[in-house]
Amino acid sequence: MRFVKGHGTENDFVILPDPDASLELPASLVTWLCDRRAGIGADGVLRVVPAKLSAEAGEILDRESAHGPRSGDAEWFMDYRNADGSVAEMCGNGLRVFARYLVDSGLAEPGEFDVVTRAGVRHVGLGPTGDVTVEMGAPVVEGESWATIGVTEYTGLVVNMGNPHLACVTGDPVGRMDLTAQPGFDPAVFPAGVNVELLNSVGERRVVMRVHERGSGETRSCGTGAVAAAVAAARLAGERQGQWVVEVPGGLLTVTLGEDSSLLTGPAVLVASGEVTANHA
Ligand SMILES: N[C@@H](CCC[C@H](N)C(=O)O)C(=O)O
Predict the structure, then answer these.
(1) Is 163 labelled a binding residue?
(2) Which domains does the chain carry?
(3) In this predicted complex, what is the ipTM?
(4) Which amino acid positions bind substrate, per UniProt (predicted)?
(5) CB-ligand 1 contact for 104 (6 Å cutoff)
(6) Is 168 one of the annotated active-site residues of the chain?
(7) Per the confidence metrics, is the pTM higher than 0.80?
(8) Is 91 a catalytic residue?
(9) CA 88 to ligand 1 centroid distance, Å
């Protein structure tokens, strides 16, 4: 099996090209690929599938066609899996790395194009090298909820980015928090689990964020989480739009909040490629 390894602000992925849509991805294969000792090691897997060969992508494109002609142009479907093998709707850093892979491998021209994700069609923009920007859609704020870390409870904003987030702005320094275990959360609000972001405001339109991701544990960055964090910080500052810098353990992301949209910009790099023989249980 051919693979490429890449990361976006150290949120890392195993990329699996699947040009004829023949690759099966049982959870056991994904967890083995993502295993940092027994496998390649990653926070998730990105399967690269031609949209026209994927029934799932076809359904998404049909559903989206009402939103405009652009969606029909998407050539590639990003099949994203978390490190535990679970399927997620969307991955912002993954999509930036996915786009970088398409351009670097000659499957897409530098510039702008669309990619199908389970959360819908997403527009990406990138040059032959450098940062990648993703149009992340409109963040949907669905009220407030709580998360617990140890005995401490944090209040946060429920933000739907296609996938579920709870973004908690706090005065407790996030650098000192123990995010090794899944934070407690309200299963009535998040029946399918949640990605939990903890953040401190550290300047004008600048936050420091750590995240515990559903299905992957603590990661060094989360793109959808960075947008959710910017939305929470903006609301607290009485703002709705503008550009926010989100410092994550793996680097810096820029989030631009618009009236009905959001953009995520940051680095996306490919670091290795090779052949792997699946020998998972
Ligand atoms: N790291 C991703 C989010 C990946 C999916 C998430 N763990 C979920 O289950 O919703 C990002 O960069 O957005």
Answers:
(1) yes
(2) 2-133+267-275 (3.10.310.10), 140-260 (3.10.310.10)
(3) 0.99
(4) 11, 82, 92-93, 163, 195, 213-214, 223-224
(5) no
(6) no
(7) yes
(8) yes
(9) 7
